[in-house]
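Researcher: We're teaching a course module on how sequence relates to structure. For the next exercise, students receive a sequence and then see the predicted structure as tokens, so they can try to spot secondary structure elements on their own. Here is the exercise chain.
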Amino acid sequence: MAETKYNRVKEWIRGRILDGTYAPKSKINSESELMKQFGVSRHTVRIAIGELVSEGWLYTEQGAGTFCADRSSREEAPKFRQKKIAIITTYISDYIFPSIIRGAEAEISKEGYQVSLFSTNNDHENEKRILETVTAQRFDGVIIEATQSATSNPNINYYLNLDLLGIPYIMINAYYDELEPVSVIMDDEKGGFLQTEHLIKLGHRNIAGFFKTDDLQGAKRMKGYIKALRENGIPVNPKNIVTYNTAEKTSKPVENLKSMLDSSEKPTGIVSYNDELAMKLLDVFRQKEMTVPDDISIVGFDNSFFADVSEVKLTSVDHPKSELGQLAARMILKMISKGRSSKQGAAVKSYVFEPNLIVRNSTKSLEKPVHTE
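Model: And here is the predicted structure for the students to work with:
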């Protein structure tokens, strides 16, 4: 069904309340301004404002205008209110996310909190809608994975408003640097370094790297890849670096790998952004009738279930998964119990997991064995 004109006005005003643009008791745009902005009649604007007044978002003062209501005074008494924490990840049922969520959910449930799960699908518009829900329903705390964390985020105001409302949040896997939030992450740069260094130690010099760079994890893993090459005196070949974003993840890496393998100087080793991508690259090797590791070596990241399910057991950097979720849950519970100070995370400090490499049989030494008589 097509969106009604008054609903567009209504949702815009509601969004400005939830992202903190309209503070409690502040005056909103006049009817005339809203009419001009949306190209609608005064009647349409009044319907939108009337519904927001009846729902408790706004109030009017005769002769003065329309103002943002202070909804904090409308909250239920604590003894009747269900304690709840939101877990927001880019995906819920895919890849390593179920393990992270299970770890967090188990810790949170023990303390009597209801857990609500949300997925942004790594999309900023979805993130915005979820943050509006979290703010409107006044969750006690939020565990959230940043959406496209390496790009400029249009929803920063929503996070700043969480601060103003005293709703603590922790970011996992990556974070928005400008917010300096409490976070639980991996040392992704070191992980990328370990992937590349492993291949170098096996005698590989022509090493290609595939990195998803609209997420901070990918940008940092690429940094580790470049650092490992430089520290070992290996020139960084731009043709060996493939970057892609969320929208390109099912096509660009595969097409680029095919081109690489058709070239006269095809790589002997591959550093993959994660195990999920590594599985797609393994399919390309099969199409090209190449075997791993005899014809080419590959290193994944996350030590996911993919590392063991294929016929090639994947060498991969381990990800704490459930442990990361558990730690994030304990930290958000501590932040809630202590109360949010004016400084983000004053009572709780961020944590960085150290990566380690799990070596399986997807990599092979290029060094010829020395035979002795």
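Model: If you want an answer key for the exercise: Residues 49 and 55 are 10 Å apart (CA to CA). Confidence is low (pLDDT under 50) at residues 74-78, 340-345.
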